[in-house]
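We append the chain.
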Amino acid sequence: MATTADFKNGLCLDFNGKPCSIVWFQHVKPGKGPAFVKTKLRNLENGRILEKTYSAGEKIDLITVEHRPYQFLYKDEDGFNFMHVETFEQVHLGFDMIENADLMKEGQQVEMVFQADEERCLTCELPTYVELEVTYTEPAVKGDTASTNALKACTLETGAEIMVPLFINQGDKIRVNTVDRSYGERVR
């Protein structure tokens, strides 16, 4: 059992029976009345951000989570299949468990977050940047744009569609941010 004095970013706790992680917290000591702690919590099951205010010194239930390295094997009609890189244990996850799953290619390393006492997978986190090949994009025509930051649609080797600058061509390898699906840079 811990208290609000133990709060730090990334701390995992049980909030209304759901596993959550502290994203942000602020200890407030007003001129009148008791001190309190304002927090923003991320639900580890669905990624939603929740706001909660705790009284200073309030007791909270901590949970233990483990980050484990897995490799993406393949996708089937039921979801995605992964293998632990050290124990070779295989795990199957549904389509709704992974955000931006269309940026994942076979053989890619991911990190899974497990609730340790229940051995339950909470989330699957892709690396922040992935390198993918452009399989289709319209060629840029000189004079197409009036601004300097014009973008066009492209299809990647995984089937994902993102917006890229006009100078990107079919066959180029690019770095893509998996958090916001944005173009990072061209890879040589």
